[in-house]
Amino acid sequence: MPSRALLLRARPVLRLMLGLAALAALPAPARAIVGGGAAPPEVAARTVMIVSTRGASCTGTVLAPDLLLTAAHCVAPQADYAVALVGQGPVQLIPVVRTALHPGFSGEQFRTRRPTPDLALVKLAEPLPGRFVPARLAPDTGLPPRGATFLIAGFGMTADGAEKTAGTLRAVSLPSIGTTGGIMVRLSVPEGGAGACTGDSGGPAFSNGDVAGVIGWVTAVGGARGCGGVTGITLVGLQRDWIARAAQQLGRPLGQ
Questions:
Q1: Whose C-alpha in 2, 34, 74, 231 is 20 to 30 A from the C-alpha of 193?
Q2: Chosen CATH of 1-256 out of 3.90.1150.210, 2.40.10.120, 3.40.50.80, 3.40.50.10420
């Protein structure tokens, strides 16, 4: 398992917010995520950006007006977190008030390369605006076949180190090339040059319109450090029971 998580650590949150406000006034780049394009409206309505006082950003999926699904490594470190609403006027922040990490997650997985369920639920201080709608969790509890296609989305960079490209939601479709540890799927195109990048952690991987996975890690082509090679996602169908229990504990049962 690759050692790189997809956190954006390069600048404090205030600087990040100023940068995002400037980005909102610019046209979207021609290329996106890595090798993708603008996210379709149905994806944008279910996907948000998460920022923190650590100077990090990630992506999350809307499960309820005030409940998000993201990667555990995005919200495990001690910090203040918030959703940053971008793309429609001035940047607005909605604070995170509670988080629930999957009990099986280990932050050591990026060092040991032994995958664990990299999932977390996030409870917001107030509901998201009405333009956001809950995503459905994929019902599948098995491993997808090789070649199964997933649409991944995130607010990360278009290339490794391209910080000024962060803050715009983008998406790309990728096929499965195999599984890892019985809980993760590896996604890639044969020629490389497409996939998640820094800031996309926690973002959704859709299959047939349902959220089937959560973005956790990425490599460059050939397994090197960077972006555009292989993207790893944690399958949510295998963790549906935990997601339902955690949502209940956070005071927002799924489906309400």
A1: 74
A2: 2.40.10.120
